[in-house]
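Q&A log
Question type: sequence-to-structure
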Amino acid sequence: MARPNPAQFMQQVRAETAKVVWPTRRETALTTLMVFIMAALAATFFFLVDLLLGMGIDAVLRIGG
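Response status: OK
Response body:
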């Protein structure tokens, strides 16, 4: 494929950028909120798993030690 000259390249970039559908402020806010909620749920899940595993290992070490 032949490389376009810089002017053609910039023309193609502008044409492709014009096709982009940018999210609205509301869509961006909702998506950001969902990311924070999912991160909090994941953090809570891993905290509980870590807590349970720690308690289990502690119990095994008390019995065996």
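Response note: Residues 27 and 59 are 48 Å apart (CA to CA).
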